[in-house]
């Protein structure tokens, strides 16, 4: 399903395809015309994506066909094997955990997983974890510390699930505990926001030494829809809320929430998932290379300092 | 949810009225009994008839917890900025200015050092009457600083929460306060200093999902709404009625999420005892008396306090189970 602002691009692509087919059919040379259209297509794509509103980026971050956590897990790492269960109550399909290798080095991988189709979406609860998911994350953090394995987390969730069982089982308690447990890791950790970074449910696995984000991904304290429902009293004002929340990759880089923006292929990761995955792999390699040479204590303390420093305020006792 | 209510409401909440000299009598929100305003104040804003707990402003909370004359304020020098140039139906700075004016404080929190029945503590108290107690950069930083200073000075930390959650107007920066407050607690843990959190009505969203639920001991006030997602959000998601008492303190006690539910008039004594037990210190032979009225004016104080005089006992806790 195409996004609204993708239509002109898709139309032009169709036109080029038709022209090619026609040229072949009629055995005529339309090379020049096609080249012109292709140049136009490139410009159109660049213009469209450069000028996307924040709300439109939210649509890209949620786009069908955008690579999911498991897509990255399977393509970026070698030998991924899934490890199920929270050792207490169950297994949360919305948060996939496992072991894998990155360039021959073992790592613990956690990935929030939305579905690639309706059926999987329902199975994965649209990427919204129950407390069980965060308990699984925490026991994987224990494993990482015990064996000295670096941690990679892939963030893509609308948020932690707001349901009766989730609340009864202490959704807030496990998110807090997961934030705390991850902050205490004695190994290097890199988080990548690959789609939606939905509030506390995202941060629960986002307390990493380096926080990276894909160009069209978002990370926010609240979804634009919920924010609009509260502040504008109308969820339909979500586009305004998205603008106000400054939740895009570039916005977040400016206020130090993220350390690096990973480029997506023109048109978004869903237009060319392979390129997106390669870019993520490259970024992970570079970040782990720069973190190598630390010590358990320094990885922990630098992570601590990174998050301790976040926030903007004025100190009236200092300001004159 | 709670935050939603704050933004919707143009007239002050009923508990807010208490601060203003309205009538001598009011109808209890809990039992509808006609109660004498002075009695309500003497009972620490709990109904003398049914025990209904009204929300409490931060300054009154500090007065009820700190020993007289021992509180030294640490917070107050930090003020919010507008990092996102956030405007909804009005610009964030305008919203802030209005509430700052009204509350006489730069943000929704008061912190400071004090003695609590002689125990050296740092008090961190959130104020729901200030922008729904929402946690932005200032609130997060004040909490972090208070935790770190408590550790330096060898004080226990007592945090009293009341918040609609993270402050939307500071976007992801507010979200990061969850992590900031959490990492700051490490300083206390490193020195084996107790951290006790007291969850009051309402404690929701990002505050519940961070420092509030990381206490070594977690108490809550009776009937306090404590949740991650608010009841309205859940109802919209699942399109079902919620169980009776869902997300209230007593419900969460049964679910194993709280150490206990403690009524306000017994809170100070309970905190003092808990801190002494955790620090392996001798318990006093005379435990702290219940309900020392603190938010009465001098004339009332001269009349004595009807609620005082009952020693703190085990029975002050809300019974487990039903």
Description of the molecule:
The complex is a heterodimer of chains A (320) and B (322). Chain A is built from 14 helices and nine strands. Chain A has 320 residues and is of the alpha/beta class. By secondary structure, chain B is of the alpha/beta class. Helices cover 35% and strands 16% of the residues of chain B. A seven-stranded mixed sheet of chain B has the order 3-5-6-7-8-9-10, sandwiched between helices. A two-stranded antiparallel ribbon of chain B has the order 1-2. The radius of gyration of chain B is 19 Å and the shape is globular. The N terminus and C terminus of chain B are likely disordered. The interface between A and B is large, with 58 and 66 residues. Strand 9 of chain A pairs antiparallel with strand 4 of chain B, so a sheet runs across the interface.
Short description:
The complex is a heterodimer of chains A (320) and B (322). Chain A has helices at 7-26, 31-50, 54-61, 69-76, 118-123, 131-147, 164-168, 171-183, 199-203, 224-231, 238-245, 249-254, 273-291, 296-308; strands at 78-82, 95-102, 105-112, 151-157, 189-198, 210-214, 218-220, 260-262, 313-315.
Sequence-ordered SSE layout with sheet pairings:
The complex is a heterodimer of chains A (320) and B (322).
Chain A: H1 7-26, H2 31-50, H3 54-61, H4 69-76, E1 78-82, E2 95-102, E3 105-112, H5 118-123, H6 131-147, E4 151-157, H7 164-168, H8 171-183, E5 189-198, H9 199-203, E6 210-214, E7 218-220, H10 224-231, H11 238-245, H12 249-254, E8 260-262, H13 273-291, H14 296-308, E9 313-315
Parallel strand pairs in A: 3-4, 4-5, 5-6, 5-7, 6-8
Antiparallel strand pairs in A: 1-2, 2-3
Chain B: H1 2-8, H2 14-18, E1 25-27, E2 34-36, H3 37-42, H4 58-65, E3 72-73, E4 78-80, H5 92-103, E5 109-116, E6 119-126, H6 137-153, E7 156-163, H7 171-184, H8 186-190, E8 195-203, H9 205-208, E9 217-220, H10 231-238, H11 249-254, E10 260-261, H12 264-278, H13 298-302
Parallel strand pairs in B: 6-7, 7-8, 8-9, 9-10
Antiparallel strand pairs in B: 1-2, 3-5, 5-6
Helix pairs in contact in B: 6-7
């Amino acid at each position: 399903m195409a996004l609204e602002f993708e239509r002109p691009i898709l139309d032009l692509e169709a036109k080029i395809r038709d022209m090619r087919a026609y040229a072949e059919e009629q055995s005529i040379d339309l090379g020049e015309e096609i080249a012109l259209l292709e140049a136009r297509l490139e410009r159109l794509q660049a213009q469209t994506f450069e000028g996307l509103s924040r709300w439109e980026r939210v649509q890209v971050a949620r786009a069908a066909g955008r690579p999911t956590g498991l897509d990255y897990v399977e393509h970026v790492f070698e030998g991924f094997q899934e490890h199920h269960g929270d050792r207490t109550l169950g297994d949360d399909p919305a948060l996939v955990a496992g072991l894998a290798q990155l360039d021959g080095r073992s790592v613990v991988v956690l990935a929030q997983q939305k579905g690639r189709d309706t059926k999987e979406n329902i199975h994965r609860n649209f990427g919204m974890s129950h407390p069980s998911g965060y308990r699984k994350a925490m026991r994987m953090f224990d494993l990482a510390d015990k064996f000295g394995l670096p941690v990679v987390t892939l963030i893509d969730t609308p948020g932690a699930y707001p349901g009766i069982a989730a609340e009864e089982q202490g959704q807030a308690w496990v998110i807090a505990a997961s934030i705390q447990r991850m902050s205490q890791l004695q190994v290097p950790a890199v988080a990548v926001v690959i789609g939606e970074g939905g509030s506390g449910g995202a941060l629960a696995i986002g307390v990493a030494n380096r926080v990276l984000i894909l160009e069209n991904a978002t990370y926010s304290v609240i979804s634009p829809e919920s924010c609009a429902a509260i502040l504008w009293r109308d969820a339909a004002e979500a586009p305004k809320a998205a603008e106000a929340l400054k939740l895009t990759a570039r916005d977040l880089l400016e206020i130090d929430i993220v350390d690096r923006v990973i480029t997506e292929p023109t048109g978004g990761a869903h237009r060319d998932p392979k390129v997106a995955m390669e870019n993520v792999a490259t970024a992970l390699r570079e970040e782990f290379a720069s973190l190598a040479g630390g010590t358990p204590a320094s990885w922990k303390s630098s992570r601590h300092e990174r998050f301790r420093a976040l926030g903007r305020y004025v100190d009236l006792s200092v300001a004159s | 949810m709670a935050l939603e209510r704050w933004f919707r409401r143009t007239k002050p909440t009923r508990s807010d009225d208490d601060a203003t000299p309205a009538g001598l009598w009011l109808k209890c929100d809990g039992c509808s009994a006609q109660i004498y305003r002075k009695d309500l104040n003497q009972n620490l804003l709990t109904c003398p008839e049914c025990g209904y707990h009204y929300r409490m402003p931060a300054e009154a909370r500090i007065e009820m917890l700190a020993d007289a004359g021992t509180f030294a304020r640490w917070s107050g020098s930090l003020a919010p900025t507008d990092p996102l140039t956030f405007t909804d139906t009005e610009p964030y700075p305008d919203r802030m200015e209005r509430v700052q004016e009204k509350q006489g404080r730069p943000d929704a929190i008061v912190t400071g050092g004090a003695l609590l029945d002689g125990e050296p503590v740092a008090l961190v108290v959130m104020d729901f009457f200030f922008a729904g107690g929402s946690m932005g950069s200032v609130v997060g930083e004040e909490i972090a600083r208070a935790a770190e200073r408590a550790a330096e000075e060898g004080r226990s930390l007592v945090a009293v929460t009341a918040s609609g959650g993270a402050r939307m107007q500071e976007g992801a920066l507010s979200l990061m306060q969850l992590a900031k407050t959490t990492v700051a607690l490490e300083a206390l843990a490193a020195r084996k200093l107790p951290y006790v959190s007291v969850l009051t009505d309402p404690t929701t969203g990002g505050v519940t999902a961070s420092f509030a639920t990381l206490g070594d001991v977690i108490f809550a006030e009776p009937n306090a709404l404590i949740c991650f997602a608010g009841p309205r959000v859940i109802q919209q998601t699942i399109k079902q009625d919620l169980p009776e008492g869902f997300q209230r303190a007593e419900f969460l006690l049964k679910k194993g999420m709280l150490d206990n539910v403690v009524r306000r008039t017994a809170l100070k004594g309970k905190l003092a005892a808990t801190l002494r037990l955790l620090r392996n210190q001798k318990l006093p032979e005379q435990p702290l008396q219940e309900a020392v009225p603190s938010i009465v004016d001098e004339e009332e104080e001269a009349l004595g306090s009807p609620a005082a005089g009952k020693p703190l006992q085990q029975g002050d806790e809300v019974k487990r189970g039903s």
